[in-house]
Amino acid sequence: MSSLDTAIPAGSLVLVTGATGFLASHITLQFLKRGFRVRGAVRDVKKSSWLLDGPFKSYAESGALELVAVPDLGADGAYDEAIKGVAAILNVAYVTKIVPDPNEVITPSVNAVKSIMNAAMKEPSVKRAVFTGSAVSASALAQGVDNGTIGRDSWNDAVLEAAWAPPPYGLSHAMANYPASKLAAEKEVWKFVEENELPFTVNVVSPAGLTGEPLNKTHIEGPANWVVHAYRGNKQFMDPMLATFYGDVKDVAAIHVAAVLDPEIKNARLQSWGHSAHWNDILAILRKIRPQKKFVDDYPDPQHLKISVDQSDSIALLKKWSDKDGWTSLEDSVVDNINNQYLVD
Prior knowledge:
Elements: E1 13-17, H1 22-33, E2 37-42, H2 57-62, E3 65-69, E4 88-91, H3 106-122, E5 128-132, E6 146-150, H4 157-163, H5 171-195, E7 201-207, E8 209-211, H6 226-232, H7 235-238, E9 243-248, H8 249-261, E10 269-272, E11 275-278, H9 279-289, E12 306-309, H10 312-322, H11 330-338
Parallel strand pairs: 1-2, 1-4, 2-3, 4-5, 5-7, 6-12, 7-10, 8-9
Antiparallel strand pairs: 9-11
């Protein structure tokens, strides 16, 4: 792997936004292990101090890792200082609010893309920009229907229409706002690419659900840790989404790294969904690794999503840059998600 040509020189400084997040923290660690320097953009440096400890401590002490505050992702000029001197940007941060008003979720998500792209246009050191998209930008991932085939121009436009339906804003808006914000943000990325002569290359990596090793207790809590919901029997999170796709967080992080480093990957939408799975698949693994624990009953008539998606480019990048022949197995990833110091029975 060390002999591979890279789009940015070894030791370059990269900016990772939302650096304390589940995925972003792994992206940060993988870049550091490869000998790159990382500037982690976080909302509050003091509250993010754990990112300078544990597996990150030696890098922080050597100066390879630094944190910078970007409290308002969508503010004009939000990234002007953070972006100075970086060779690559990985925009992983997203608006985490679950609220009914789309103006509080979608609008700042789009503005964040504009802010970071405008900053990048003014910084001559920037050579690569990678944005974290989402599978829900390309498909509704609906249960019990044929979702068809996902291609380069697949968009889940219906969710955007649902989110921007006229007020009063209610629960349906709140449920639609996250996927709508991811879709709107990615469309803004490609709009910016189309309308400007960019001096840097842009790629988008789109995961579905993430599983795998948490690097902090905060990665165990929250609505997006799907395995923990099954572990705890949180049916209110499980029932609305019986089946989806799950990728190991280290695999998806590696694809983000490759999307920066690989000079051949340009203007790519890398669907990085991982394994198709139903809750019953997760529960079977949990019963195997925790035979003494009682879990919720299996769902009757389990059905995987009916959808076709080509992930060959993402798998090829895993092979090229991580020497892996495919996705980490669902079982191994679930084990990593559960067998750690942060999950307390």
